[in-house]
Request: fold
Amino acid sequence: MNFNIIVPIKYVPDIEKVRFDTETGRIDRSSAEGEINPFDLNALEAAVRIKEKYGGFVTVISMGPPPAEKALRDALARGADKAILLSDIKFAGADTLATSYAISCAIRKLGSYDLVICGEKTVDGDTGQVGAEIAEFLGVPHSYYVSEIRDISKKNIKVVSDFGDAYYLVELELPALISVTKDINSPRLPTFKDKMKARRAEITVWKADVLADVCDIDKFGFKGSPTTVSKVIIPKEHVKECCFIKEEEAVDKIVEVLKEIGVV
Ligand SMILES: Cc1cc2nc3c(=O)[nH]c(=O)nc-3n(C[C@H](O)[C@H](O)[C@H](O)COP(=O)(O)OP(=O)(O)OC[C@H]3O[C@@H](n4cnc5c(N)ncnc54)[C@H](O)[C@@H]3O)c2cc1C
Reply:
């Protein structure tokens, strides 16, 4: 059947290590190594499984700084066929609207497609808005929280959408966009051979001007972003204390603590 599938993937910093610049309200991306947004691995796996079952082609697109190439190479090692990096100072400072607009422009530029598969959300921005916004810009139907793909034909796709308190069986006409949850599959690990091949693969880099014939490039980046971050507050970490007490000392210790906190 041959499906042409597009998977937008985000290069995110290791969220355990990254620092925030509270002055500018931005992430200090130099403070931690990056990787593919973990939720996007499920989106990629879903795309590759469709390709393996029915035939097709999987294109991954990422908008980000040059190091985002690392995430794209990882995606190639995991079964994607082509990788496109949108990287230009004109994309910088993008909020979710400007991000979705740029990605939808890149999809338009690629021409025809059957399905776009996004992750549910990212581990750094965590808004979960980008998928639906891309679909709206492209004018295609979309379904969120997809935990299962029941069936797909060249005309439509049937999916199970998990809204927590209810499951919906949704049928969408293609082309369409779905955002998948991590329950949809277990992403594969790339083999050493695939990693080596991906290392040598070509990554297509598109600057903003490349998209000038399909979009208004003044709507990219900061210029096209209606939201601003007014303040960033890092919540204080609450460290919980724990101590281990030997069995024979337990009663005395508990009484001591209860006295300390005024219970007895
Ligand atoms: C005012 C403002 C200014 C900002 N300025 C900057 C800035 O200067 N630099 C910066 O790095 N960030 C900036 N951001 C954050 C940026 O808007 C988000 O990183 C981006 O819009 C994605 O949103 P999200 O992480 O919530 O994605 P979600 O909506 O949670 O992601 C859902 C899915 O969309 C896809 N997706 C999301 N982002 C991308 C991407 N970049 N490429 C490919 N696919 C993607 C993935 O499939 C992902 O699983 C800014 C945000 C605001 C509000």
About this structure: The pocket of flavin-adenine dinucleotide is lined by residues 8-10, 26, 37, 39-40, 43, 61-64, 92-96, 99, 103, 118-119, 121-122, 124-131, 225, 227-229 (CB under 6 Å). The mean pLDDT is 93. Helices lie at 38-54, 69-77, 96-110, 130-138, 192-200, 250-260.
